[in-house]
Amino acid sequence: MKIKMLLVSTLLLISGMSCTKKNQVIDNAQSANKNKSLAGTTLAPPTWQEHWFEHNQLLNRVFSDTSVAVYYDNDVDRSITWPYTYLAQVWNYTKKTYGSFGTESQLYVILHTAKYSGGHPSTYMDASHDYRNVIDCGSNSTTAWTAGTGNDLDLTTHEVGHIVEGASKNVLGSPSFNIWHDSKWMEMYIYDVYLGLGRTADAQRWYNLVLGGSDPYPRANTHWFKDWWYPLYTQYGKTAVLNKYFTLLAANFPKHTTSNGVATISEYTGELNFGQFVHFWSGAAGADLKSLALTAFGNLDEQGNDWTVQLEQAKATFPNVTYPGSTPTVAATTVSKENSGGSGAAEGSLKMTDNNVNTKFFVAGYDTGFWAQLTYPSTVTLRGYALTSGNDAPDRDPKSWKLAGSNDGNNYTQLDIRTNESFASRNQTKSYTFTNNTAYKYYRLYITANNGSADFQLSEWTVSQ
Predict the structure, then answer these.
(1) Is residue 357 situated within a structural domain?
(2) N or C end of the chain, less CB within 10 A?
(3) Sequence-ordered list of residues with C-beta below 8 angstroms from that of 87, at least 6 positions apart, any chain
(4) pLDDT tens digit string along 296-335?
C-alpha cells in the first residue's frame, strides 16, 4: 500500500445530486482556541506543507473537529464547506463499520483547485504523509468542489475506500489490489457508504452509474458490480460481509512485523491469487461462492491460470477460513522451492497437478534437496503415481527420485525409489506402482537428481490408489 495505494485515482465520474450541509463550523486559524483540544483530540496544525509526489503547496486548515481536519490550498474557494460535514459522516461510518485506523480520530482531507487532478490516499502507518489518514484530491477546474454533489462526493469517498483496503484491522497493505485494481472495490464501498448514510438518492445514482460498467480483467467484458458485488452484497449480509472479508484477511493471510520509522507495525507480505480471493470472500459470506465467481469472471485469472485449482489449494492453505464446501476436494500442492512468479504463475507449482500435460512447473536453481508434496484433507492410501516430462530441455527432467509418506509432516516413510530414469520424448507420461497398505496425509516426492540442468521442470505429477 505504500506504493500501490498512493496511485492517482482513475475514477472521475460526473453527476448532479445535492449534498446535505449542516452543523458546519469554520475553524479560524487565528482564533484563541486554535491550539486547544477537541474532546481530548489535539487540533490538527493550522498549516501543512506538502512534500509528496509533485505536491508542494502550503495548505491551510479551514476546519477541524474530532472527525475531520480539512485543508485547502490557496486556490480553493473558501465558501466551500460541504466537506466538513459530509466527509466527517463518511469517516465516522467507516470507523463504525471497519474499526479504528490508528489512535488518531481524524481523517485529514486535502483539496486542491486548478492542479493535481485526481486523488490519492495515505494511512496512519505511512511516513509519506506524516503518519496520518489522508485523502488528497485535486481538480484542473478553476471552479472545483463548488457543487458538493455527484463526482465531488464520489471521488472523495473513493479515496477513503483506499484507506479501508490499505489499513483495515491495523495491518498495512492490500493483498487484493492486484485483483480488483484501483476502482473495483470502490464500486462496492461507495454504494454501501451511501446506503449507510441514508443517502438513498446518491446510492441509486451510483448504482445506475456502475451497473453497466465493464472491465477487461480478469477477462474481457467483466461486469464486476452487476455480476459479483451486487449479488454478493445483497445475498450474503450486506455491510457485514464487507467487514468480515478484511477481518479474515487480517487473521489468516501472511504478514510480518516491521518498522515504519516511528513504530512497529503489521504488514501483509504478499498478494492474493484469484483462488484465494474467492476463498476469503466465501469465508466472509459463509457460503461457497465458486459458482458466483465462475459466472462473474470465468475460470481464468488475468495471467491465464485456472483459479479453481488455486481455490482448492487455498482451502488447504487457509483451513481457518470456513464455509460449506471449504474442505479441499483435492490434495494441496507445495514445493520446497517455488517458481519465481508464485504457485499460481504460468509455470508455478500448481501447474504440476492441474491435469494438463500442456502446462508445466518450472523452477530455476534446482538442487538435490528439492521436493514436491501433496497434502490431503484426511489420510488416503496411494499405491501408484505418474510423472510427465516437460515440453523442452530434457536435461531439466527428473532422473532419480524417491516417494515417501507421512502423517505428521515431519517423519516420512519411504514408499518407492527410482534411479537413472529417462523420458524418451517431451510430455511423455511414465507410470509407477509400489506396495503400500498405510494411509498417509502427506505424500512427498524428493527429486534427488535431474539430467544435469541448473533448472528443474515437470509437467504433471498424478497419483492413484
Answers:
(1) yes
(2) C
(3) 68, 70, 107, 109, 135, 156, 160
(4) 999 999 999 889 989 988 998 898 999 998 887 778 899 9
